[in-house]
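Write out the bound-state structure for flavin mononucleotide.
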Amino acid sequence: MLRYFTAGESHGEALTAFISGLPAGLKVDQAFLDRELWRRQQGYGRGGRMKIERDTAHILSGVRHGQTIGSPISILLENRDWKNWQESLPVGEGDRAKHKRVASPRPGHADLAGALKYNFSEARYVLERASARESAARVAIGALAKLFLQELGIEVLSHVITTGAVTLQEEVPWEEIRALHAKEEVLLNCADPEVEQRMKEEVDKVLRTGDSLGGVFEVVAHKVPPGLGTYVQWDERLDALLAAAVMSLQAVKAVEIGSGVAAAYAAGSAVHDEIGYEAKDNFTAFSRTRNNAGGIEGGVSNGQEIRVRGYLKPISTLRRPLQSVDFTTREPVKAAYERSDVCVVPAAGVAAEAMVALTLARLALEKFGGDSMLETKRNFEGYRQQLKDF
Ligand SMILES: Cc1cc2nc3c(=O)[nH]c(=O)nc-3n(C[C@H](O)[C@H](O)[C@H](O)COP(=O)(O)O)c2cc1C
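---
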């Protein structure tokens, strides 16, 4: 069974991520892991922190001679800013006078709910863990899941559909998403350069006014075979698992599979994807005229591309803060401000790719099993043949 979790505070010494259950014999490409981490740090509208950090995945265990050995893998991501926080966030008792309080909770962030829950007198420890810095650890293990999926021919990428008030209307084909991914510079990760420029203007507006933006990204999983996930139990459905995985990312407030939202307002004949029998390069000859289902029917992958959208609320740390209350005096004050991103849709898309890849890898391993890549791939090829013979 594939299991994973993360640890670490935003300004602590390091983040760590653990993943257990990957088969032995998977080639681990360090440059791929680091590029995925780099991608999460990109995008127009990021805060100053991205300039001081260049994440690298330091693998501590579970990989030897460049391959997984079946043991749990642990990865360490250093926080380069730690040197500036050692005295204010020490592991030992330290000097409490050097603590950096977050004196007034930010509406929309975890500050107030977290302080109440954990009985903290202010929100420093809350934001240290609630912060999306944590998503870097998920991207590191997600990159391993992607390498595993690549061995089965499956790829997972994302692109941006909406930033603020600007939305790309057309569906973006896989080849264009791939081309976006190959770029060495990331602006807003939108496939249409003209729309991307308008997205940039949206970010420029909030940079001027001290406000922030949300948006929508789409994750696409290419060449997923039919048969991952199942309708037989509620918690084994692929759509449910993907929704939870993407929703678990900081600031994601809605998840859509295929054109699920528009479908709710349309007639059945305009929504459902008619079936033919002529496909040439897919797992079976069954074909579809379109993919409104986003590659999932009945909680099972149907052989089409899987398309999952995540809807992000605007960043809650504002340079022109909203009204709040001082934790100590209970007097009305402006919410706390600390160096912050103003727009993170491309980065959230990369983190969501990791969550989608981890979910698909888990289900692929449940279906195909295998303690070594040789065994997993043999089982996978057997299933491919079964689909061909269907
Ligand atoms: C990649 C990424 C970067 C983020 N950066 C910031 C940030 O710099 N400042 C901020 O206030 N929120 C940021 N957020 C959002 C907060 O982490 C999030 O809103 C907060 O933890 C509360 O959780 P919730 O929005 O899921 O309720 C970011 C989210 C993502 C996905």
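---
The chain has a mean pLDDT of 97.
The longest strand covers residues 155-163.
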